[in-house]
UniProtKB/TrEMBL annotation:
<keyword id="KW-0813">Transport</keyword>
<keyword id="KW-0408">Iron</keyword>
<comment type="similarity">
    <text>Belongs to the bacterial-type ferredoxin family. FixX subfamily.</text>
</comment>
<keyword id="KW-0249">Electron transport</keyword>
<keyword id="KW-0479">Metal-binding</keyword>
<dbReference type="InterPro" id="IPR012206">
    <property type="entry name" value="Fd_FixX"/>
</dbReference>
<keyword id="KW-0411">Iron-sulfur</keyword>
<protein>
    <submittedName>
        <fullName>Ferredoxin family protein</fullName>
    </submittedName>
</protein>
Amino acid sequence: MARNCYHPTAKAHLHLHDSLSEEQISQLVKICPAGLFTQDVAGKVNVHFQGCLECGCCRLLASPDTLADWHYPPSGAGLTLRFG
Ligand code: SF4
């Protein structure tokens, strides 16, 4: 993971629906291998999309009414995997 290269954009490539249940939030926190979903003490969900691995796990495993939108970052942005 330390060898990955990120080219973040200012605009998020994934968005959540406005009102999520505690169960939906818990799912997101558990699902994301990069730990990008966090919940603050006020209960607000923060999405640290800049570190997205583009694995699609949240898209595939979260309840259908959790993500409002998910698409790959634009060309030239997002994750570049480094090998070796
Ligand atoms: S695509 Fe993968 S890394 Fe990106 S937010 Fe969803 S689960 Fe996390």
